[in-house]
């Protein structure tokens, strides 16, 4: 598969994967790129945000429901007319359907499709410990390529620089940018997760702000070069 592709994962749910993925899809689309969006697992809520951002359907990549040897084919077919495929992961990077196996996880999808992983790290209330988390994710399964990190919910530029130095100088994984802590970008949730985009809401305004903030503090050129 020759199409450029990236998978956005995190150490745990609630780290901001959906916000950052949707914002990046919208920001890159504004650059004139055709983005094919995907979501790991059977989730039907998050794909609504990505479809809105991309202007095209978001497809699921679920290695539990779909035979694993067919996952790469689904990705290739559904992104054949795109310039770039962006995949949002599910839960934590290695969280699948069992505690002793990562089938169905973001890591499993990344391995099956040979897709580099960008870690979305909720960096609030931490500094050097962020480097230990990234090192653990990188070393847990070396078959999964960690291509970079995006810091979320940092308190200030100084905080972002502090965490970036810790990760890059200690672990050697590039930090591609950050998002400041901002309650206006926090998506509403309820028992099944996020509120579906099909329900009434100011979703386009939210998406426009997410795209603007992403384009301001995340290095899109470095991201595309991963």
Produce the secondary structure layout.
Blueprint: E1 5-9, H1 17-30, E2 35-40, H2 46-54, E3 59-61, H3 68-78, E4 84-88, H4 106-113, E5 117-122, H5 129-140, E6 146-154, H6 157-170, E7 175-180, E8 189-190, E9 193-194, H7 203-217, H8 220-224
Parallel strand pairs: 1-4, 1-5, 2-3, 2-4, 5-6, 6-7
Antiparallel strand pairs: 8-9
Helix pairs in contact: 1-2, 1-7, 5-6
Provide a short characterization of the protein structure:
The protein has 226 residues and is α/β, with parallel strands linked by helices. The chain has eight helices and nine strands. The mean pLDDT is 93.
Highlighted features:
cobyrinic acid a,c-diamide synthase activity; Cobyrinate a,c-diamide synthase; 9 strands; alpha/beta; 226 residues; globular; CobQ/CobB/MinD/ParA_Nub-bd_dom; Rossmann fold; single chain; 7-stranded parallel beta sheet; P-loop_NTPase; CbiA/CobB_synth; two-stranded antiparallel ribbon
Describe this structure in words.
With 226 residues, the chain is α/β, with parallel strands linked by helices. The chain has a single domain (5-224), classed as P-loop containing nucleotide triphosphate hydrolases (Rossmann fold), CATH 3.40.50.300. Helix content is 39%, strand content 19%. It is built from 8 helices and 9 strands. The strands form 2 sheets. It has a 7-stranded parallel β-sheet, sandwiched between helices. Strand 2 (35-40), helix 2 and strand 3 form a beta-alpha-beta unit. Helix 1 packs parallel to helix 2, helix 1 crosses helix 7 and helix 5 (129-140) packs across helix 6. The longest helix has 15 residues, at 203-217. It is globular, with a radius of gyration of 16 Å. The chain starts with a strand and ends with a helix. The mean pLDDT is 93.
């Amino acid at each position: 598969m020759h199409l450029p592709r990236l998978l956005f994962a995190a150490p745990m749910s609630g780290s901001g994967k959906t916000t950052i993925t949707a914002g990046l899809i919208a920001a890159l689309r504004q650059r004139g790129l055709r983005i094919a969006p995907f979501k790991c697992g059977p989730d039907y809520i998050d794909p609504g945000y990505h479809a809105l951002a991309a202007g095209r359907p978001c497809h699921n990549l679920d290695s539990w429901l779909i035979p694993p040897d067919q996952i790469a084919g689904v990705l290739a077919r559904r992104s054949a007319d795109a310039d770039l495929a962006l995949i949002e992961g599910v839960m934590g990077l290695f969280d699948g359907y069992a505690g002793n196996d990562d089938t169905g996880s973001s890591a499993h999808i990344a391995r099956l499709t040979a897709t580099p992983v960008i870690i979305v790290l909720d960096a609030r209330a931490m500094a050097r410990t962020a480097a230990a988390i990234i090192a653990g994710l990188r070393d847990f399964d070396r078959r999964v390529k960690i291509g970079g990190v995006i810091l979320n919910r940092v308190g200030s530029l100084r905080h972002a620089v502090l965490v970036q130095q810790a990760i890059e100088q200690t672990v050697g994984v590039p930090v591609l940018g950050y998002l400041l802590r901002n309650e206006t970008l926090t998506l509403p949730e309820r028992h099944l997760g996020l509120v579906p985009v099909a329900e009434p809401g100011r979703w386009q305004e939210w998406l426009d702000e997410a795209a603007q903030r992403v384009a301001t503090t995340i290095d899109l050129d470095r991201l595309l070069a991963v």
